[in-house]
Amino acid sequence: KFTKTIFVGDVAVGKTSLVNRFCHEVFDSNYKSTIGVDFEVERFDVLNTPFHLQIWDTAGQERFKCIATAYYRGAQAVVIVFDVTNTFSLQHVPVWLEETLENNKEKPLVFLVGTKRDLVSEPVYHMVEKQAIAMAKSLNVEYWTVSSKTGENVKGFFFRLAALCFNYSVLREMEVPQSSEVSKDFVSKYLDEILTRTEINPYFIQFVHVVSACISFTLYNSLAYICLFLLVQKCGPYK
Ligand SMILES: Nc1nc2c(ncn2[C@@H]2O[C@H](COP(=O)(O)OP(=O)(O)OP(=O)(O)O)[C@@H](O)[C@H]2O)c(=O)[nH]1
Ligand SMILES: [Mg+2]
Fold first, then answer.
1. Which regions span the lipid bilayer (predicted)?
2. What distance in angstroms lies between residue 25's CA and the mean position of ligand 2's atoms?
C-alpha cells in the first residue's frame, strides 16, 4: 500500500525543512529553494501492514509553478504549509487548495500546517492560531502547528498523516462505486448471459421431434404385433 502526498505552500514557508526533519532528522537554517520538486518515501507499519508514504515536496517559487503542478495529479493527500510568522502565507492557503483540487478528480485528504512555531511568542502565536483554526474550519481540513527547528509536533503530525492516509486507502479499496446502479447493471448483464446460454437451439427441437416420432412408431408397431400375435393364438387355425 502507498499514498501520494504533496506538500504545497508559499515560498520559504518551511516545506523542505519539515520533510527533512522527519525523514532525515536534520534542520538547516540556511535557505535553499527547492527546484521543481523533491521526492522522499517513508515506510510505516500500520496494524502490522507495511505502508509507504510518497512525499512530493514542491517548490513555492512562482517560476517553478508549472513543474510543480505537474506533480499534483493523483495526490491522495495534500499538506498546505504556511509560516506562522507570515500571515500572508496563511491568506494564500485557499489558492493552494483550489489549485491542487483542480488537478485531482477525487477529493484528497487535506492538512493545514503552520511552521516555525519556535519563532513566535505565546501571545502572538495565539492570535495566529485563531486565524489558522478559522481557516481550517472554513476549508474543512485538519490543522497542525510544528517547528522543524526544535522538532515540536513533527513526528506527531507525520504519524497522524500516515494513519489517516492508510485509513483512506483501505476505505477506497473497499468502496463499491454507485452500488445500486452497479448491481442493476451487473444483474442485467449476467441475466442476459444466462438467457442466451439457456436458449434452446431450434435444430435440437426438430431432432427431438424426429426421435420421439421414431420411438412412437416403433412402439406402435410392437404393440400392433403383440395384439396380432395374441389374436392369432386365440382364434388362429392352430389348436
Ligand atoms: N526557526 C525556524 N526556521 C525554519 C523552520 N522551518 C523552516 N525554517 C527556515 O525557513 C527557511 C525556508 O525553509 P525551506 O524549508 O527551504 O522552505 P520551503 O518552503 O521549502 O521553500 P521553497 O522550496 O522555496 O518553496 C530556511 O532558512 C529554514 O531554515 C522552523 O520551523 N523554524
Ligand atoms: Mg523547499
1. 207-232
2. 16
CA atoms 212, 214, 215, 217: torsion sign: positive
Q: Which residue among 7, 10, 16 is best mutated to probe the pocket of ligand 1, counting the most ligand atoms within 8 A of its Cβ?
A: 16
CATH class of the domain defined by 2-167: alpha beta
Cell numbers representing residue 211 in the block: 426421435
Domain ranges of the chain: 2-167, 175-238
How would you write 74-117 as a 3-class SS string? CCCEEEEEEECCCHHHHHCHHHHHHHHHHCCCCCCEEEEEEECH
Residue 28 Cα: closest atom of ligand 1: 29
Q: What is the pLDDT of residues 9-18, one digit of tens each?
A: 999 999 999 9
Residue 201, pLDDT above cutoff 70: no
Rg (CA), the chain: 38
